[in-house]
């Protein structure tokens, strides 16, 4: 589980934070985000999001990341990880992480696709 106030991680999509931040006046914590306009736009809403809602969104994003990985396996017709080439294994991991980040950013910005 990630914390949306981690200074190294975008509080919206979980990519590397790039020095953009949001905090209401007199707040003790800053919500750091990447440079994606979607993340910058969602920062204010994410800042006040309760941790349990954040956790639910993160869990859905993890499932969608897994779905993206499975979709690749179905496309290449392999289900045995030992049979994947290095490139297929790299793409599998990229799809899972990319699917997770995309779903996280979409859900955080209100574009929930259940
Ligand atoms: Zn981001």
Distance between the termini: 20 Å
Largest sheet: 2 strands, antiparallel
Radius of gyration, in Å, reads 16 Å
Unreliable stretches = none
Total discrete domains: 2
Proportion of helical residues: 40-55%
In sequence order, what are the helices and strands, one letter per element? EEHHH
What integer is the average pLDDT?
A: 89
Total helices: the number is: 3
How many strand elements?
2
Main β-sheet, spatial strand arrangement: 1-2
Assign an overall shape.
elongated
Q: Give me the secondary-structure category.
A: mainly alpha
Give the distinct bound molecules. Answer: zinc ion
What does this structure look like?
The protein has 114 residues and is mainly α. It has two domains: 49 residues, no CATH class; 58 residues, no CATH class. The protein has three helices and two strands; from the N terminus they run E-E-H-H-H. It has a two-stranded antiparallel sheet with strand order 1-2. The longest helix is centred in the middle third of the chain and has 26 residues. The mean pLDDT is 89.
